[in-house]
Amino acid sequence: MRFVVTFLATIVQFIIFAFIAYMIVFRENYTLGILMCVLISAPVVFIGATAAELYYGLRKGTPIRFAMYGAAYGFFVGLLVASLFQLSTALLILTCLLGVVFVGILGVTFYYIRGANPGQARKKIA
User: Fold this and answer.
1) CA–CA distances in Å: residue 31 to residues 13, 27, 34
2) How far apart are the first and last CA of the chain?
3) Cβ atoms of 122 and 58 closer than 8 Å
4) For the segment 5-26, what is each residue's pLDDT rounded down to a tens digit?
5) Which member of 60, 84, 92, 99 lies 3.0 to 4.6 Å from 74 by CB, making a disulfide possible if both were Cys?
6) Which CB contacts under 8 angstroms, 24+ apart, belong to 14-19?
7) How far apart are CA 84 and CA 6, in angstroms?
8) Pick from 71, 10, 65, 68: which is nearest to 41 by CA?
9) Measured distance CA(44)–CA(47) in Å, rounded
10) DSSP string covering the chain, please?
11) Transmembrane stretches, by residue range (predicted)?
């Protein structure tokens, strides 16, 4: 149940962060921006939250590690989105930087909302 609440909170935050990034990068057609942010956010957050949940259950995670892994995932997603839209080099760097910052924040948010005791799944398996 905690995963569902965490997933929903993270997806709402990611949609907001993606829209902020869209406004910074493009500055046009906000209706299309909201639609794009929702469509891009769902699979990105689902993959990221699933990976974070697996890491959270099997390892002794810390907020700093979640921020680092979130930043790395944000860089990857920013690079992927920038290459899909074929952005210029300056916008590619800006998109990757926004991805690092925003998804790093979401990693820490995921850690604190998820709560409980990280690394307990390993004890149940063994």
Assistant:
1) 18, 11, 5
2) 23
3) yes
4) 777 787 788 888 888 877 877 7
5) 99
6) 14/41, 14/44, 14/45, 14/102, 14/103, 14/106, 15/41, 17/98, 17/102, 17/103, 17/105, 17/106, 18/102
7) 28
8) 10
9) 5
10) -HHHHHHHHHHHHHHHHHHHHHHHHT-S-HHHHHHHHHHHHHHHHHHHHHHHHHHHHHS---HHHHHHHHHHHHHHHHHHHHHHTT--HHHHHHHHHHHHHHHHHHHHHHHHHH-S-TTHHHHHH-
11) 7-26, 32-54, 66-85, 91-113
How many CA within 13 A on the CB side of residue 78?
Answer: 27
Over the stretch 102-112, which tens digit does the pLDDT of each residue have?
Answer: 888 888 887 78
8 Å CB contact between 57 and 110: no
Q: Is the pTM of this model over 0.90?
A: no
